[in-house]
Amino acid sequence: MDIPEMATDGKLFKFIKDYGDDQVCLLELLLFMGRHPSTRFSRLAIEQVLKSRKVYVEKALNYLVSRGVINRHDGRSVPVYSLGQDDSLRRSVSAMARLDWWQRQSLLRQIYPLCSPA
Asked: Which of 11, 89, 103, 117 has its CA 20 to 30 A from that of 96?
């Protein structure tokens, strides 16, 4: 199965590969935000949806905010997060979220070639 070119954006690949913490949480966060590109979520809502530990979600959010992939909105008592405004990154994240399971596995083998089975 071919992976759409948009889902293999080099900039997004680099962000994922360079992340040194829980990469599964990071990928799940990207897929979740890609499925809801125009919605704002609190950190607590994201933690519950991803069923991940608070520390991993917080680190992944901070990492993606610092790279401009996700925006943090502080206008209310609780900060909320949404997919960033960079059009190329938005398209890449949205395209990644639309991949089926097989395409996603192929994408992961491209990102983490040392982890792929022989």
From this structure: 117
Which domain, by its residues, includes 67? 5-115
Identify the residue whose tokens are 């994922």. Answer: 16
The dihedrals phi and psi of 106, each to the nearest 5 degrees, come to: -65, -40
Q: What is the pLDDT of residues 31-88, one digit of tens each?
A: 999 999 999 999 999 999 998 788 889 999 999 999 999 999 998 789 999 999 988 8
52: domain CATH number is 1.10.10.10
Q: What's the one-letter identity of residue 85?
A: Q
Torsion angle defined by CA atoms of residues 66, 6, 86 and 60, in that order, rounded to the nearest 10 degrees: -20
